[in-house]
Amino acid sequence: MRKTPKQLAEKPTPLELRDPRGDAVADVLGASLIRHALYNPLEARAPWGLRIPRRNRASFYLVAHGSARLEVEGARAHVLSSGEVGFVPHGTAHTLRDSADSESLPVCDGPYSLSGAPRRIGGRGAATGIVAGFFELSDGRGPVLLQGVPPLVVLSASDPASGPWISAAVQFILAESASPRPASNIVLQRLADVLFVLALRSTVGDGQCRRGAIAAVADPRVYETLSLMHARVADPWTVDMLARRVGMSRSGFAARFTELVGESPLQYLARWRIARAAELLRDTTEKVETIAGRVGYESVPAFSRAFKRWQGTGPAAFRREPFAHTDRQGCTVTDH
Questions:
Q1: Cα–Cα distance measured from residue 265 to residue 110, given in angstroms and rounded to the nearest whole number
Q2: Left, alpha or beta for 15 (phi > 0: left; psi -120 to 50: alpha)?
Q3: Sorting pLDDT into bands at 50, 70 and 90, what band is 326?
Q4: Residue 164 and residue 28 in one domain
Q5: CATH number of domain containing 313
């Protein structure tokens, strides 16, 4: 059927895309998490214990069956029951074992395994199944998002706000781990992302986190400010401009932002510009001059000085040695 002149003149209706940089929390996670990885499932029988050193990563442990005692420096020990997830968001040294009396052995990352077969540890007592993994964090002063988050976060289906979502994600992970299918690794990694976000949300919902960027999620005006800075990081923002955008006085806005986030608006913006620049240096081949302009710097020297102040090295050196900014402590694992 031949189109009429009217049909030919019609313009397509644009469908707006969601701006991935408009959500401050998603933006921080995208820039701060270099990679995530899952270990082969653990099958532990009492007595057993694992001692994990401090790392620049956020670790998590999902108990499939049985129970596991998670001891994190600076937090009260928690016995994870079946279906619960323990997060160690700051990479703090911690111990995972069947009881407080069991000896714990130091562990580290082993080689990649193609089989996905469970790793068996411990003796001949009560059995515990664990799905474990980590999110590797970018180097520097650490993601501001995690500041104020407690050293141990526990996710449970009994959570009044997110319980159903936690239960669904956990059941999906356990089913996918028990019966791997094509692209199971991708499915598991995405589900681990969901658990990470649920863990961050839970710290706000139950009052565990009262300070830091994640705490600002509960304050509509401060969170709107964060979203503005993330979506338009190169804009020449001032405290006055930001305060007007969210309908607050300059002094009231500055005080509220600093109280919740832990640093002033412009200090947060300066830190975030460098975090975004580090992401671009790591993931693109754009010129340093181009990246400087994209994050709000008019000159390369000023950008380089700011970058070195926050990251401890210049942008060119940072790009030349990308793997120096990740935590890749490996070891040879032997069966016993």
A1: 42
A2: beta
A3: very low
A4: yes
A5: 1.10.10.60
